[in-house]
Structures are given as C-alpha cells and as structure tokens.
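Project standup — Tuesday

K.O.: blocked on the structure for the chain from last sprint. Re-posting the sequence here as requested.
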Amino acid sequence: MTAIDSAEGRPQEGAKPLGLAARVMRGSFVMVGGFALTNILRLGSNLLLARLLFPEAFGLMALVTVLLIGLQMFSDIGLTPAIQSSKRGDDPAFLNTAWTAQVLRGVFLCLVAAVLAWPMAEFYGEPILFELILASALSPLILGFASIRVEYALRHMMVGRITALELTVQTVGISVMLALAWATGSVWALVIGNLASSVTRVLYSWLLMPGPPGRPGFDRAAASELFGYGKWVFLSTIAGFFLLQSDKLILGHFLTMGDLGIYNIAFFLASFPLILGRSMTGSLFMPVYRETPPGLSVESDRRLRRIRAGLTAMLFAFCLPLVLAGHWLVDLLYDPRYAAAGPLLILLALAQMPQLIGLTYDQAALAGGDSRGFFLLSASRACFIVIALLLAVPAYGPQGAALALFLAGLLSYPLQVRLALRHRAWDGLHDGVAAAILLALLLIALILHGETLL
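H.V.: unblocked you, prediction finished:
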C-alpha cells in the first residue's frame, strides 16, 4: 500500500508512504474518536429512552435483538474476513460473488426469523414478541442489499469512511427512536428505529462509500475460496453467538422482563471497552497481521508488541471508572428504577476484562488463514460459558451471569495461548502484566463495594 489518508486510510498518489505503525496509529485515533462519539450518542439515547419507556421494553427488545444477532451469526460464512485476507480481495469477480451471497443470506434470515417469531413468543410467554420479531425480521433483508464497498473499505483500512458510516447510521436510528418514544411511549419505537438504521446503512453504502459497488455475479473459483474459508468461520460464529448472547437467553428464562431490562442496562454500560476492542482488532489488526505476520522479524515483532500493549492499556483505562464507580455512575445517569444495575455494572466490567487480555490472538489466526483454529477456540469458549451460566444463573441470578463470564474468560485463556503460539503471536510479558492489573482491580472493587457485590 502506498500512503494513507489521515482520516480514511485511502491511498494518496504522490504522497510519502506511511509506515505500518503510523497507519495503525492514525486509524486508532480515528476509530477511538468515532467510537467515543457513537457511544456518547448511544448513552445519551439510552438515558432518554430509559425515561420515556419502561424497563420491560428493554427486556423485550433484548430478546428480539438476541434472535436477530443469532440468526446473523448462525448464517455467517465469513465474507468480511475472507475479503480482508484473500489475495483476490480487490477482484471485482470475487466481490460480486460475495455480494450475491450476502443478498441471498439476507433473504434467508428474514424468512427464518418470521418462522421463529411464534415459537419464541410462546417460550417466553410474551405474545407481543410475535409482532416485534416479524417487523424486526425486515432488518436482515434490508441489510443484505448493502454495497460490498463496506468490506472493501475495511480491507484497505479506510477507517474514516467506516467511522462516518457508523456515526450517520447511529444518528438516524437514534433520532427515529427518540421521536417515536416521546410520541408513543411504546417499545415499537426501538423496532422502527432499528429498521431506519438498516435503511440508512444500505443507502450510505451505495451512495457515499468508495470502491466497487458489487452486483449480481458468480465466479466458481471465488465461491470455492469464500465457502472454503467460511465454513470454519460459519461454525465459529455459531459458537460466538452462545459466547456473546447466551447470558440473555438463559436469564430471560429465569427473570422477569423488567429484571432482564435492568441487566441489559448494566451490560450496555459494561461492554463499551470490549466492543471497542473487538471493533479495533477486527478493523486494524487483520490488515496488520496480514502485512507483517508475527515472527517476520525482531523489529516487526517489537512493533506489534507496542501496538498491542497500547491497545490493552487504553481498554483497561476505560474499564477503570466502570469498576471503581459503577454504583455512582448508574445513580447519576438513571432514575431509581434502575438502581440494581449499579452492582451488576461493576461485576460485568470485571467479568469481561479477561477477554481483553488475549483479544488480538484470534486475528493472528484468521490473518494466517487458520479459520479452523479460530473455530476451535470459539467453540471451546462457548462451551465454557454456557455450562457456567447454566450452573450459576439458577443459583445466583444476574450476579451468576457475571461470575460465569469471568470464569469462562479464565478457562479459555490456555487455549488462546496455544493458538497464539502456533502463529508466533503470544506475548507472555504483556499478558502477565495485564493479569496483575486485573487482579489488583478485583481486590480494590471487593474492598470498596464488597457488601453490595456479594
């Protein structure tokens, strides 16, 4: 790649090429700034919606969201990482084949969601879920027609373009949600707002993103590469669904919709660092590992260690106020109906920190074409967390969910190390220092808030 535009990562003719570290640094600044703006919008809208709606609305929407995310993950064939890692990632025939598969997947998801609407409403004893899911099923259908230019931008680290897309989508969706919530006070405000976000994403991707747009097409060699790479990613995303969403599915069976809504508020606040970390590793570290694989040289390994240490330090810094002041944060931001989210916020923030320590190792595997190793790690982590949730939630309720997340993160770490060693990406010093900081934060939290946490 030649040079990188300071805001987007686009090649600039005649400009002096930037080094890998400089490109990652610029991309990181743009991504962190965009993430901050996006989540300020999310937090502000969440606070307003919490006053305009009722806790049960967040519980209902959590179940709808879990279903849609589950369907997307259960049908994920790895188009995005395949385009990012493939040598044919800029080939129009390859991209057209990927876009065609994306459209067909969107149609499939819409139909399956419609079929599952009634059984899910019956299982949770909430008749309104049937109508909410039917309407929400239009979202994956709409998103299936988004331009493949988004994946092209990710491949070339056009972070500015991606950030602008996310901010625009977020702003439109939030505006619609707030207007309808103020006018109706109904959970339908959340559903229609999500549909507005989907339409905005599709329009933006076609009208304002650079690169080849994607059109119907089929190339046998491209399809073979996409599905050959994607079969393990497909299985990995099924495991990822249970890893990321099983807490809400299991809690939804044991708690009232109001209590599930309170848990969802705490999870919403606690998950900011992990969401940022996953976004950054997916957008930045895949190209980094593709261009300079671990073990390439002493200097490149040193550079990778510095980049990774900076990422972890930043994410831990974001966790710090959540762990130390979660009670006060919830009391400050929300009305007394949500006070129980305070202790949960502290526990969930701590519970997700073990995942931050080895966050980039799976990207090294994907960049190296080891989607099978990525799947085995994801499947093992999913098994750990589902078993832990089934044991802890009936006994301890929402606090048990936080305990299960924490234990699953610890138990899966040796498997992360094994995968990292295979790809020469393990950094024991980094992980040891991060683990010591995590232990210190855990002890401080117990000293400050032990009575309310236990």
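K.O.: great, moving the ticket to review. The radius of gyration is 22 Å. The chain has one domain: 20-453.
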